Amino acid sequence: MNAFLLHVCASFLIALPLGAGTLPNDFNGRFDTVTARRHLDVLASDDMRGRNTPSPELERAADYIADQFRSFGLEPLNGSYFHGYHLERMHLAEPTTLTILKGRDTVHMALKADFIPFEMSGTGNADIRNKRVVFAGFGITVPEQQYDDYAGIDARDAVVLVMRGEPSSMRQHGSMTEKIRNARSHGAVAILAVDAMRGRALTVSGYPWPMLYPNLPKDAVPLMWTKPDVKLLPVFHVGEAVLKALVDSVGVLRGRCALIDSLCAPQSMELPGVRISCVVTFVRDSVPVRNVVGLLKGAVHPDEYVVMGAHYDHIGTGRPNEKGDSIFNGADDNASGTAGLLMNAEAFAKGAARPDRSILFIAFSAEERGLLGSKAYAATPLLPLAKCVGMLNMDMIGRSENGKLSIGGHLRCPDLIAINEEENKAADRPFTLAYDIEAYFFRSDQASFAMKRIPVLFYFTGEHGDYHRQGDEIAKINFADLVRISSLAGRVAWRVAGSPRSTYLPAGWED
């Protein structure tokens, strides 16, 4: 190459901004134990009283995170660093009734003794009267196993009786949430759930509503978030008295359930000559809650983005332990992940270059209440989810032992897994990566994005004896590895922001 051409090329390269292929040289240096400890000293302090959702301390934590985002130079969305949403405290109230009509007999079931609404129950239509009853086995549909409890029955405008759990040959299909979703999609108006498998007692549990159990605190009520456009079905846990009123023989029903389990084949049917009427009444209090958001715009495709997330809430306070400690500080769960999120936000914002795509940093609230903050964000996003190319979640990354790091998402997101393995291998001290947390996949905020078929990675250092106990304190945090995990997640996010869209392999339960 002649000297003139070399000079022209050099000038051209100097004029170009660094792209996603060039991670700033000082990126890893922006992650350090002093910064990590500073964030945990705030978030996991006794003054934060466990950051329960909702609480004044949770709001203080949100303000702290927003102030950090602002100081780093991240951009707000729609003029704010907050994504606000509302939860509802649900109080069971009268009238709540369940009546069974069989022939000329009318049987009024007793609330608490015979039936109890679940916390995920709704009120449904105001007038659920004289409805047919269909037995729908486990109430699940698994196309890849050619299994459908609703095949051959008409659940439209009917009450469905379903068993809790799933056939013993299946995994991850037996949640009540999935049963409710399936019943609603088949047109059911209410659900009766029962523990009908042999060896299980036909006792009633449902939710321990303070109205039914006076010794419970009056504020021991569920906190729920519901999609604005979804009307929830009434869902009851029922016991032996209800079954005896519905079928001639509880033993016959148990036998049918055992047959389903042994053959993995539905035995669904309409229950002849039986009708049900029911009413559920809730008094609801609206509670405002906030996720915290900050945006770093990409250099090439700023309209597309990667989410880096961590939940910042924990479980608050409780009965004092033997040391007199009543505060669940949640240092690992999840002040550690929040610190990782903040360090990444600062490293990206203060770096010498920008990634190709934007990075959206989100600190989620109400994860401990059932991923409610991330569910609310995924349902009402501030940026179009169609433009989101990946989500990286850090939850409990502060207690690594022997250099082990567990990764979730390997069954669904092979492209992201490959990038993560490459970046880990290139590190000065690679982690021993383990793909052993599939059972936890639904229990952290990446699940809310996976449900939308967005590729995800989940960073997790494992459960321990201090999980949801007062002993989850700063003194037990492995700060050196917390920093290394946070930096690894950041390098992967940079790579994802500059790579072709990743492949997502559906698991069968996504929206």
From TrEMBL:
Claim: Zinc-finger is one of the keywords in the record: no
InterPro entries, alphabetized: M28_fam, PA_dom_sf, Peptidase_M28
Gene3D superfamilies membership: 3.50.30.30, Zn peptidases (3.40.630.10)
CDD domains: M28_like
Keywords assigned: Signal
GO MF annotation terms: metalloexopeptidase activity
UniProt superkingdom: Bacteria
UniProt entry tagged with the keyword Signal: yes
GO terms (BP aspect): proteolysis
Domain Peptidase M28: 291-489
Alphabetical list of SUPFAM superfamilies matching this protein: PA domain (SSF52025), Zn-dependent exopeptidases (SSF53187)
Signal peptide: 1-20
Official protein name in the record: Peptidase M28 domain-containing protein
Organism: Candidatus Kapaibacterium thiocyanatum
